[in-house]
Specification:
Two copies of one chain form a homodimer. Chain A has eight helices and ten strands. Chain A is of the alpha+beta class and 268 residues long. Chain A starts with 11 loop residues before the first helix and ends in an 8-residue tail after the last strand. The first copy, chain A, binds a DNA duplex (21 and 21 nucleotides) through α3.
DNA sequence: GTGCATTTGTCCGTATGTATG
DNA sequence: ACATACATACGGACAAATGCA
């Protein structure tokens, strides 16, 4: 057999990862199938691929970081994570669902129309950290009100959604109540004289934090590749009144924007 | 010494990764400093953290996947990757750089205004793969023309940019020439009667592919956390005429969108 | 409820390949 | 040619979590 460092022996973990990724995509280890989405043990899989258990663990670790499987220590094995693909459309915040007839977009909207709910994780007042404070134009040490939520789609925790507002704007309002504010943050801010007129979205790749792993029901130490979507909302006087941080883990979540050429246009 | 599996010994790799991440952010191992961005060897760092060389290698591997350091085998060690943060503004494609006075946005635009160039990696005609073909509305087996580019910012390969157009639209045009088309793809398509009027952007987290690693000057086997930005462009008849795939690796790259409340509005 | 077997999580030390200088 | 140092993978070991008898 090819020993450890021989040329053909290299990248065995990577090729096994690719093969497992493909098998998961193809539908082996299906949740509805008898296996309940269970993967064989690292030892068994390792024999299949001619890998040691440690190396097979690395394969599984790769899959976990890609968000494809979920693992727990103990006699439980790895299971395929039942993500439902979520299409996130930031522009719906402003557009009152105008009738789009564009095939791609309507198609995506339909896919996103699946039922979903959300859970409030916490509502607190705390000193703004450097990044959030700068975006909200706060002085150092000034406080923000924070609502941390987790979105549940098809009974699976799918994304976290943290909303930051300067405390002076919402202190004493029902936005601070630890229940769901049915009419939404934007409506509350509008009632307080800060109707959202403009928003700037910043998107970056990063890994989930340990805190987010808990909220998303992932193993605490297993980070997952994610997109961070940081939105700064401005009112009619163009003052920043809200920062929202969404964390969308896993490869199945998609953020979609539509752009159009401005109407008053004379040809370039 | 705390032996292998003792409670305090757990997550030592993770905490070392976090510490190294912070040290890099804080500016240890600076490129301008005497070390030229060189990290100490895995052995030396391992002694510092009380980790074996193998475990320290895993720490460095984590940092590499986050895009913070770059490694090459051989007697070279790991060096801090000199990413220059790039702000990517898809909306500039349509907006003729109208005078924005918004602090956040202008600030970001300024940061993005750094000089950059691009290199053509290849210009080919090939059968469309399933995903691209579906977006362009092609029949199976139909061909697309592909321009693969790499953007260079401050002499560092920063992002890849692949443009797909149905071959029948641009066959024989100078878009197929393997040089830079100074006036840009959009202008060429406009000349051919397919002026871009609308675009749909889809953003997803994923890892760089082996091919992209080569183009970005990364080690072939070391994937990096990235955002994939897939744009479908539609002409005035709302037919899809172009798909662009951008891969933005590393935590320093940011994609920014601005959203505004539509002008004709009567209160919700 | 308790104890045991299973399985993952984590890390060590070692060995070989390979690229760099 | 040689030393250095990363890349990869092995076997072994212990802790912790889980499931089951």
């Amino acid at each position: 057999m090819t020993t450890m460092g021989s040329p053909e022996a290299k990248w065995r973990v990577d090729t096994a990862t690719a093969d497992m990724r493909e098998r998961i995509r193809a539908g082996d280890f299906r949740p509805d199938d008898g296996s309940q989405g269970q993967l064989p043990t690292a030892n068994t899989l390792g024999e299949h691929y001619g890998l040691s258990r440690v190396s097979m663990n690395n394969v599984i670790k790769n899959l976990r970081e890609e968000g494809l499987v979920e693992t727990r220590s103990g006699n439980r094995g790895a299971i395929v994570r039942p993500w439902t693909p979520v299409i996130f459309l930031p522009q719906q915040e402003f557009e009152a669902s105008a009738g789009h007839n564009a095939d791609l977009l309507t198609q995506l909207v339909e896919a996103a129309a699946r039922g979903g709910s959300s859970r409030i994780d916490s509502v607190t007042a705390e000193p703004a950290d450097e990044r959030i404070g700068a975006k909200l134009g706060l002085r150092p040490g000034e406080h923000v009100a924070v609502r941390r939520r987790t979105s549940i789609v098809d009974e699976v925790a799918t994304l976290t959604d943290d909303s930051y507002v300067p405390l002076r704007l919402v202190d004493g309002s029902d936005w601070m109540d630890p229940g769901n504010v049915a009419r939404g943050t934007n409506q509350v801010l509008a009632e307080l004289g800060h109707k959202l007129e403009r928003a700037v979205d910043e998107l970056r790749p990063r890994y989930t934090t340990a805190e987010e792993n808990v909220r998303l029901g992932l193993s605490p130490s297993g980070s997952v590749n994610a997109i961070e979507l940081l939105t700064t909302g401005f009112d009619s006087e163009d003052l920043p009144v809200q920062v929202t941080m969404l964390t969308l883990p896993g490869p199945r979540n998609t953020v979609v924007y539509e752009r159009r050429r401005p109407l008053p246009e004379a040809g370039e």
